[in-house]
Amino acid sequence: MVVRKCRQCDAVWRSDLSQCAFCGQEGESQDVAATALAVLDRPSNGTPKKDPEPAATKPPGSFVAPPPAPRLPSANVPPLFGLLGLAAAALLPAAFLTAADRVAAILLFLGVALFAPFGPLAWWAGWRYQVRCAELGFQPSAAARAGGLLGVAVTLLLSVEGSALAFLRALRHLQE
Q1: What is the pTM of this model?
Q2: Sign of the dihedral defined by the CA atoms of residues 160, 162, 164, 167, in that order
Q3: What is the per-residue DSSP string for 9-22?
């Protein structure tokens, strides 16, 4: 594998891909330390090589956080999808309450049908963004993480709302 660095956004990745996953620019090859590419040698006499004794352990506060991901439009997709899914969650009770006016109810249910898939899509887009950032060695943006969590919440809210409203609709139908 080759280590490459993007000239435009300074992203670093370890793969055979020549283009940056964030901005699509051509990456330039980087020198890798010889220790990272060293292959374990076996001594010629067939005896196993002893591991060197660790000199000292690192102090607990020596963890280095990965760099933040570059600012890209793909980090804004999960929050946007989450807000569209939240619109569906707001339209669903309104469509149920306006059942007397058929035109308004139909239009509201069409709005729910249009916006409802964005809840699970926000969940998936946030998860995919986090996985991709982890693969590239970046810390995902807070907006993308919040959008993924909003997608989870909206998906659960839509399923609970749908179940509750279907139950109420069945009760109303039994009373008629």
Answers
A1: 0.60
A2: negative
A3: T--EEESS--B-TT
